[in-house]
Each structure stands twice: as structure tokens, then as C-alpha cells.
Amino acid sequence: AGYEAVLSCPNISRVSLLLVTWKRNCSSCCLLSYRSDQNETRKLNCSERITWKYSPVSDPALRIYPVDLGDEGNYTCETVNSEGNFHFFSSLTVIVPPTVTLTYDESRVAVCQASAGKPAADISWIPASNHSSEEEFHHPNGTVTRVSYFGWADSSFPSVTCLVTHPATSQTLLM
């Protein structure tokens, strides 16, 4: 989320392109097309974030910037030339890095929270402990908050480290 996604549409034929169309596989989603004989580009239900990456004549790649969770889904590129119609399928999965915090309460329980990530982040502790527990909260937008509690009250360790791993980021917080 927040970055650029480029979906390619290979022109596998050396024959001139007549028409190229990008569409998302849902009823009211964006449709972007280019017709070469009239040098005409059309956009239907597309936000300003969805455009051609380059020129549809030279490279009909689709650019989405910035990507958000609502862009996730399956996309189809159809090219037409004198040899026929060609379909290329792309699946866009949007990942969202979590916001990570490490705090503690008055009973010396360390709380490591990875908020609103997609997919859910993994949380581990250094030193490893069997005195930790975890909760998970699923949000309507598809993100997940994971909270891990580390029982530090009876520990002789001067510090604890929370290690958060996620496909978009890895963070280490020390307390």
C-alpha cells in the first residue's frame, strides 16, 4: 500500500496492436482502453491513480499509484491484433506494513503491538519466554492488529526485545 504497482501486458505478437484493454474483474471497476486506429484512449470508472505506465502503443503496462487496499483483485489485459485476441491475467495482492509499538504497564508486562498490518505480523521475544500470550484483532478493511504480552515481572533480564516480522518490514524494539 502507498507504493506503485505495475501490471505488465506482454505484446507477444510482432503484428501491430489494434486495441488494448485493462479491466478489473468486478462489475463497476475501472476499464482502461486504447484503440490504435483512432489513437483514442478511454477511461471508465478509473481514479486518477490508475493510468498507463508508458505509452499503450509501446508498452501497455498498467500503473496504479499509490496502491491502496481497494485495488486488490484480479486484472485482465486483452490485446487485439490481426492474429486474434490475447488475454493476460494478473492478481494484485496489497500488503500493508504494521505500525509497531512496545510499551509496558505497572506490573512489568511488556506489550508489543503490530497494528493494522496485512497480512498479520509475527511477534517474538528475546529472550524467548513461555510467559507470553497473544491477541489478534481483525479490522473491516482486511488489516490485522496483533498484540503480544511478555510477563517480565519475575524476570532477571535487564531488558527484553520485541521482534516483529512482516513481508513489508522487520523491526526490533528494545526495552
Cα gyration radius (Å): 23 Å
Question: Do you know the CATH topology of the largest domain?
Answer: Immunoglobulin-like
- Assembly type: single chain
Total domain count: 2
How large a portion of the residues is in β-strands, by DSSP E?
over 45%
Number of strand elements: 15
Name the CATH superfamily assignment of the largest domain: Immunoglobulins
Helix/strand order, N-terminal first: EEEEEEEEEEEEEEE
Q: Measure the end-to-end span.
A: 29 Å
Write structural notes for this entry.
- The protein is mostly beta strands and 175 residues long.
- It contains no helices and 15 strands.
- The strands form four sheets. Strands 4-3-2-7-8 form a five-stranded antiparallel sheet, with no helix packed on it. The chain has a four-stranded antiparallel sheet with strand order 9-10-13-12, with no helix packed on it.
- A hairpin with a 4-residue loop joins strand 3 (31-35) and strand 4 (40-44).
- The chain starts with a strand and ends with a strand.
- The mean pLDDT is 89.
- Keywords: Disulfide bond, Glycoprotein, Membrane, Transmembrane, Transmembrane helix.
- Belongs to the CD200R family.
Descriptors for this entry?
15 strands; Immunoglobulin-like; 175 residues; five-stranded antiparallel sheet; mainly beta; four-stranded antiparallel sheet; 2 domains
